[in-house]
Design brief:
With about 260 residues, the protein is mostly beta strands. The chain is about 10% helix and about 45% strand. Strands 1, 2, 3, 4, 5, 6, 7, 8, 9, 10, 11, 12 and 13 form a 13-stranded mixed beta sheet that branches. InterPro entries: ADC_dom_sf (IPR023375), DUF2071 (IPR018644).
């Protein structure tokens, strides 16, 4: 955390407001599964570039594994293209803020099942995307299964099955669920320049979920050791998302070191 800033001081509602900027992309996110584990700040801090700081809830940092389907991915001025605008994604992330403001997401990796989308996201959004073979399907018993295997040397994979449990409802501000799910800012780095991106959607229709199966090596591929305890599990059926332009906001100091995400 920044000196003089505690996790309770951050304005977590401001990022949920729709930015007064032009929309550059539209997407529909479906069948979102959120897995989160508490993780030591000491383990995460080397991966976070200055001037960003780890964002914590009641003094605890978290690592997240999020799997979902993207539909209707398109520039705001274009129509969706069948076979190109829909694909699956699984990402590994933690949470950061910028000098006590704009709490958001720091990605370790993002796997997607569309190789063209991977190339575009790397080039335009400066994010560590990887091409993976993936599928998401609903089973007759009401479970949702997510399978992913990265193309390349690491062959990082995940196989997850979960069963949504309760009635959907938005997470309440101030709760751990709101801290973990309601994130509308992302940060990324390229050539020692820090960039910030914003999104907007209605609050997630959150449900708790039972994790039926969990196998994965994505967190280890990012250089982290996953905690042994069971994760917190949440599910959201769908949100429609607006994407706003990426902005250059800071430069990493010359002598500052951090472990770069894989690119």
């Amino acid at each position: 955390m920044s000196i003089g800033t505690t996790d309770n001081d951050l304005n977590r509602l401001a990022p949920t407001q729709r930015p007064n900027e032009r929309v550059v992309m539209r997407q529909r996110w479906r069948h979102l599964l959120f897995l989160h584990w508490p993780l030591s700040e000491e383990l995460l801090r080397p991966y976070i570039p200055p001037p960003l700081s780890l964002d914590t809830y009641q003094g605890c940092a978290y690592i997240g594994l999020i799997a979902f389907t993207m539909q209707g991915v398109r520039p705001s001025w274009a129509l969706a293209i069948p076979g190109l605008s829909s694909f699956h994604e699984t990402n590994v992330r933690t949470y950061v803020h910028l000098q006590g403001q704009d709490p958001g997401v720091w990605f370790f990796s993002l796997d997607a099942s569309n190789p063209l989308a991977v190339l575009i996201a790397r080039a335009l959004w400066k994010l560590p995307y990887f091409w993976a073979v993936m599928k998401v399907q609903c089973t007759p018993s009401g479970e949702i299964e997510y399978v992913s295997r990265r193309i390349g040397r690491s062959h990082a994979f995940s196989k997850l099955r979960a069963h949504p449990l309760d009635t959907p409802s938005p997470a309440q501000p101030g709760t751990l669920e709101h801290f973990l799910l309601e994130r509308y800012v992302l940060y990324t780095v390229q050539n020692r320049k820090v960039y910030r991106g914003r999104i907007h959607h209605t609050p997630y229709p959150m449900q708790t979920a039972k994790l039926v199966e969990s196998q994965e090596s994505l967190i280890a591929s990012a250089g982290l050791s996953r905690p042994l305890e069971e994760p917190l599990v949440h599910y959201a059926a769908k949100v429609d998302v607006e994407i706003f332009p990426l902005q250059h906001i800071e430069v990493i100091p010359p002598r500052a070191n951090f472990t770069r995400p894989p690119v």
